[in-house]
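Morning. Coffee machine broken again, so started the prediction first thing and wrote up yesterday's gels while waiting. Chain of 123 residues, entered below exactly as on the submission form.
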Amino acid sequence: MAEVEAVCHLLESTLQTRLQDTVVLAFYKSQMETIRKELARRNLAVPVATVDSFQGRESPIVLLSLVLSEPTGSKFIRDKSRALVALTRVQETLYLVGKKAYWERNSPVALIKDFAKAAILAE
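Came back before lunch.
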């Protein structure tokens, strides 16, 4: 739930003037639903979708929820095709929101570099 709070905090503070340009993406349907409920409770009108359902669309600002389904990490998040879809939905700014302790050990920068290599190989 701390991750949902972080998403809401970003929207209410940093992005409050750009809500119409923002979408929140999650890898898991249950995380998407949790975020939607909390945004509705706070009267924040921001679209929330799963990565798979947002395929083919873009947004100027994307908040990507990196919630983990298991304490050691998630193969679902590390699925290169899904990750490439998530990372290529952004037009201007990407915010990665996830569990700090996990991502300090498993750098999202390294993850993004892996995805970038896969994208280059796929071209």
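The beta strands are 22-26, 48-50, 59-65, 90-97. Going to sketch it on the whiteboard this afternoon.
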